[in-house]
Every structure is written in structure tokens, then in C-alpha cells.
Amino acid sequence: ATMPPLLSAIANAGRHGVLVKSAVVMERLGQVDAVALDKTGTLTEGSPRVSDVRPLPGSPLSERELLALAAAAERPSEHPLARAVVDAARTRGLDLPDARDFASAPGVGVTAVVSGREVAVGAPARLSADADADGAVARSAADLEESGRTAVLVVVDGAPAGLLGIADRLRPDAAATVAALTTLTGEAPVLLTGDNPRAAAHLAAEAGITDVRAGLLPQDKMAAVQELESAGRRVLVVGDGVNDAPALAAAHTGVAMGRAGSDLALETADAVIVRDELAAVPTTVALSRRARRLVV
Ligand code: ADP
Ligand code: MG
Q1: Residues lining ligand 1, judged by CB closer than 6 Å?
Q2: I want to staple 208 with a disulfide (CB 3.0 to 4.6 A). Which of 43, 95, 178, 256 is the partner?
Q3: Which of 128, 149, 167 is the last residue of a domain?
Q4: How confident is the model over 267-288, as a mean pLDDT?
Q5: Which of residues 167, 195, 211 is at a domain's end?
């Protein structure tokens, strides 16, 4: 017996490293006419490295102390930036004290108590609003962001202590994937990111994306998708983080990056890229379209 086209398309997608969760999803993938991509871990490799450790002028902390406190607070987090911070501390042989009272806010950062000190690590604009009277945080962050790096602020006992610069690379297949998706839908994908506009625009341009929405919280990503959907578009969302889950749920079809994706993203998505190749997304859309033409 021959397999129905949508089922053999699912098997075919599997050979390309994509787990499509149902025949209904396999069918919906071919209906999409707009694409929204997450940045960190989706358009980029998601294995960012700490490139700069900068205590703020007047901070009593050394570079090593600053990095150790940040890494201790980040250790329980599954965010790619958190892993970069912990790796940098380990590479330098730093001892990481245990963190208590860990909490994370998707799209913002983390907080924890480390050696009796309250440590917050995250987006400078969100953590320093009240505490950057002289603009030192904003200047240091802007300097890092101009070159496409993500600036992360470390706040200790309520006072900004320093910044970390974190550099991530575009996936090798990012530009080809953007081009293929543009051909399939007739329009370039949009980039939805919680990161700062400077770093986002820098990376997006390299990948061939000009429509960049930055500084978004998880609910803002979802709202951007809903806006496209209510304008009649069928939106394909590709993401990896906890912060992408609401957008993945709101999408016509949600696809999660599987290798380093958060559990919530994998559960919420309709399909999962298991082999970590972004280019499998347009391939799977094309497989769906072919199968749909065979379904009578
Ligand atoms: P993206 O949308 O690009 O995947 P996120 O929404 O996950 O990015 O994060 C947005 C911003 O929030 C980051 O650029 C960073 O400034 C901050 N942030 C989020 N989680 C963390 C974390 N665990 N450590 C440090 N910063 C974080
Ligand atoms: Mg992400």
C-alpha cells in the first residue's frame, strides 16, 4: 500500500531532521505566507561567548568578581546568554558560589542571592532604568551594542556593577534560509527579538532581514504575530526560547529549534527541528506544499 501524501511528507521531513507532530501540522506548514524569526538561538547559533567583562567606573568589583557573581546567578538558567556567562567563568577557573532564590523573567534576565548579595543579570535598559542617573550604563551598553554584541548588565545589591559583552554568530545557513523563505512566501521574514535594536539590526542585515522588531517581551512577540494574523496572514514562527512560547502558540504554525531549545518551546511548537539546521524550515514548507498538491 502507498502512504497518504501528508504521511510520507512527515517521514520525509523526518529524514531532513524535522519532527512534525501531526498530519494536520504537515498540511498547515504549506499554508504559511509570512515568517517571523527569533534572533538568539534561532537566527544565531545560540552558542554565544563572553567577549568583554567591564566593571563600571567606581565599582569595587574586579573583572573576576563581577564575572563570578554573574555566573553564580545565571547557573540555574537555561538561556543561551546564561550558558555563555557560566562557560566564561569556568574557562577562567572561577569558583562559583551557590545561588539562592533564583528567579528568571523571560526577555529580561535573572535574579538570585549569591553569597548574601542580591544579584540581577539582564537587559541593561530593563534593569537600570532608575539606577543609571549619570548614563554610565547606557554609554557602556551602547559601545558594546554598536558592534552587534549583546550587552548584559550586572546589578549587585541594587547598584549597577558592570557589563558583560556577549557575541553570537549568525548560523551558517541563516542567509540562505532567509532567501529561501522569501522566495516561498514572496516577502522577507521579520525578526522578533528581546535583544537591543542595535545588535539586532546588525545581525539581521547580515542575514538579509530589514524588518526588525527589538526590545520585545514575550507578550510583545505574541502581539506582533497576532497583528499579522489579524491582517489575514498565516504566520510561521520559528523560535527556541521560553520567551518565544506565546508567539509559537499564537502562530498559524510554530516551529522550535530542538537542540538547545527550551522544553516549553518544544512542547508549544507544532514541529521541532531536531538536527539544528535552520535551512530545514523552508525545506519542510516546500515538502508540505508538494504533499498538499497530491491530496485530492
Ligand atoms: P531573543 O528574543 O533574541 O531570543 P530573549 O528575549 O531571550 O532574546 O532575551 C532578550 C534580552 O533579555 C537579552 O538580550 C538579554 O539582554 C536579556 N536576558 C534574558 N534572559 C537573560 C539571562 N538569562 N541572562 C542575561 N540576560 C538575559
Ligand atoms: Mg531565542
Answers
A1: 38-41, 74, 77, 79, 81-82, 107-110, 121-123, 150, 152, 193-195, 241, 243
A2: 178
A3: 167
A4: 96
A5: 167
Cα-based distances in Å from 200 to 36, 37, 220, 265, 272: 14, 12, 16, 21, 24
| Protein residues near ligand 2, an ion, with CB under 5 A | 38, 40-41, 240-241
Mutation test of ligand 1: which of 78, 195, 278 has the most ligand atoms closer than 8 Å to its C-beta?
Answer: 195
**What's the confidence (pLDDT) of residue 1?**
58
Q: Are residues 143 and 275 in the same domain?
A: no
Q: Whose CA is nearest to atom 7 of ligand 1?
A: 107
Residues 132 and 162 placed together within one structural domain of the fold? yes
Query: Per-residue pLDDT for 132 more than 90?
Result: no
* Distance between CA atoms of residues 191 and 35, nearest Å: 9
Q: Which of 70, 42, 39 is nearest to 191 (CA)?
A: 39
Is the pLDDT at 108 greater than 80? The verdict is yes
